[in-house]
Amino acid sequence: MMWILILVLFFFSIYAISVVEHWSVYRRWDFLHPFSAFAFSFTQEDIKPRMHDKTFLQTAPILFIVAAVLSVGVLPFAKDFILVRIGTAALFINAALAYIMVSMVLAGWAPNGLYSMIGGWRFLGQLIAYSMPIVMAITSTVMRAESMNMTEIVESQYDLWNIIYQPLGFILFYLASLALAFLPPFDIPNSTGELSGGIFSEYTGKRLLVFRIGRLILIFSLALATANLFLGGWYGPYLPGFVWIFLKTGAVAISYFFAGRLMPRLRHDHTLEWSWKYGTPLALTNILWVGILLLL
Amino acid sequence: MITIRLIILIVLGLGAIWFGWRVFMTSSMVRSAFSLLANMAILGMMFLVMRAEFLAVLQIMMMATEMSIMAIFMMMYMMDPGGMGDMDMSHQKKTSIALALLAGVAVILIVGFSQWDAIAENVPTTAQQNYDLGMELMKRSMMIFETAGTSILVAMIAAAASALPFKNRKK
Fold first, then answer.
1. Is there a smaller number of Cβ atoms within 10 Å at the N or the C end of chain B?
2. What are the strands, taking DSSP E only, across chain A?
């Protein structure tokens, strides 16, 4: 019963993220847009580019959505409500997110198109740069919990949430999440103006649909990870645990679209430079900070 | 249970061999790199079947990034990255086939004549495995890993430094 409720809330969250994303682009609320967009993509003609890479064209969207779903699978929706209970969940999230990059590079390469290929390689650079802060921010939460088990990471925040304990880690994780889900201001690999859609420029119909749904799940999964790693997971007054998780996840997911609009869109090489020169050293500082706090 | 695990291991192993073969049998550099990724990811899955969870997840995670980086470098430096020019990556075919057969026979002999311990029925929990691995890395093997880590760091710095355009070189 509880699982059905969680599933309904999950689908509702995906729907809500889709609506908010539509608002953030077109500046008007359209609550039926996800359904019409789904129907449009589902029935759209499937156009394949000339001399495309057959295997990669089929694999990339599926790998993308599978990686996104896998990363949701190891995150708790409430205490004792985890789809796959593994001891190294914190590391597994990284592993699943790394395959987002692989699928995007495949997707960029497969259609044999210039724009999509440039987009693919750009995304590769962006994700390698921004996976460092993600990995290190997760590492520092693992350090505090002394476990890679998600339940224990959440339980370590019973007294004090990680957002207060290690604010630097939260900021880095948040920004790197934006880069990973190629949300503005990190959407240069898929920029519509310069690359006419970048990686997705050659995708139509059902494949694009899989990518879009996968991306919504990815945004949800990153928000869920933020809620569990930094915002105290299911802890909160009055309401039951799973409601708190969904509230926090929803708040983080929606904040992505608001915060992204407030930040300047940097040139691509500057984006990478910011991560390598400032993000990674700051993430290391955060690890040192948590280490010192643990020893005190 | 152990039989099922063994069957899965064998299937995965065959998959790994197939992808390893594909690495050299394709003319596209990107396909080659991602075949190698598939091969390595399958090795990670084999760790998972053998219940070495941390090593498995680490292998699956690290290889995704590493092989993608390799793909872009192969794209940059190979003369026929897309495989459109029918470049053949294999050479010295007879010698390599002979060597491969020899090495294969040697491996089979080593596997066949080794004294293997009995298959472990119970493995430590994941947390215990992580703890043991940490103790191993921080105690007995620390020197080896520190040396390797420092060497890689020095190599990286040297590579970056040698790529920098120094002022006197511009003249």
1. C
2. none
- Partner B contacted by A117 (CB < 8 A): no
ipTM for the complex shown: 0.82
For an interface test with B, give the residue of A66, A88, A118, A276 to mutate (most B CBs within 10 A).
Answer: A88
Residues in B touching A128 (Cβ below 8 Å): 65, 68-69
* B71–A105 CB contact, under 8 Å: yes
Dist CA A45 CA B158 (whole Å): 52
CA angle A58/A63/A66 to nearest 5° reads: 130
- Which residues have CB under 8 Å from A90's CB, separation 6+? A138, A141, A142, A148, A149, A150, A153, A229
State the pLDDT at residue B170. Answer: 55
Residues of chain B under the 50 pLDDT cut: none
Identify the pLDDT of residue B98.
Answer: 94
| pLDDT value at residue B106 | 95
> What single string gives the DSSP state of each residue in B17-68?
HHHHHHHHH-S-HHHHHHHHHHHHHHHHHHHHHTT-HHHHHHHHHHHHHHHH
Contact B54 A94 (CB under 8 A): no
DSSP string over A73-109:
HTS-SBTTB-SS--TTHHHHHHHHHHHHHHHHHHHHH
Residues of chain B contacting residue A95, judged by C-beta atoms under 8 Å apart? 57-58, 60-61, 64
Q: Does A136 touch chain B (CB under 8 A)?
A: no
In total, chain A counts a number of residues equal to 296
pTM, 2 dp = 0.87
CA angle A103, A204, A20 (to 5 degrees): 80
